[in-house]
Amino acid sequence: MNGYDSYDEKQPVTWFRGHPIYAAYLIVIVFAVSMIVTSLLMAAGQAPFLSRLAFMSDRVLNGEVWRIFTYGLINPPSIQFAIDMLMIVWFGREVEKVVGARSFLRFFACLYLITPLLFTLIGVWMPTSRAGQSGALAIFVAFATYYPNVPVFFAVLARWAAIILVAIYVLMSLAYRDIPGLAAVLATSGFAYAYVRYQQGRLTLPSFRLPQRKPKFQVLPGGAQSPKYVSAKTSAPVRAPVRDTTTAEMDALLDKIARSGMGSLTTEERARLDAAAKAHTQRKFGR
What we know:
Elements (H helix, E strand, L loop, with lengths): L13 E3 L2 E3 L1 H21 L3 H5 L3 E2 H5 L5 H4 L8 H21 L1 H22 L6 E2 L5 H11 L11 H18 L3 H21 L47 H14 L6 H19 L2
Antiparallel strand pairs: 1-2, 3-4
């Protein structure tokens, strides 16, 4: 493709007879094999077996959870299937160049699971079913988000081509009153767009932190505590007589600190406060 700067290719997932197999190619190979197997099973009259792999929300809610993972393996041969595979090869490989193989595989795994999980939720109110691979449109949306100004179909810029394709799928779903299909198109396309923006650093995930209680501040000798945090409520008055300092004198010193801060004490008052604090510490720890 021309018109944009290509990124250096990442390392392939594996090799086959000296040929590199990238993540996008590996996905297409898996789906192509599933199409061949599906065709052979259908020819052998094994449609009931294939039906056990298709996604059905009511069956999933009754415990047949494997359908969430196997629905994409049922791929009868069709022109639409071939077009989807070409889109994954062309545009998926370009996305893989940017994010790397592992991240691209995680991205596609999320796309693969979004639809059945969403359909399971919708199935609580409206039974839904699904069979066949999904994710080609969302991969193109991700490509168009990375390279919006690249000409693709008939010299149409990628971003406009993505908008047109998504709009067509939305209108098709509305025309046939396919609410689950509409939700799937919007969810996968929206996830692809958000994924790219997150990779670009233009989208951050919200962080949730529990509120922390502020520590109680105490009066420390020698002015170690900031005066604005000192109050009569947080300062524990010393009740026992210390040397020549009476309880009344200590209360008066603490009241003075609460009103005017530690800096208002004279040198003599600071000395009496230090002596009282030291004596209190020694009694507390038995020194």
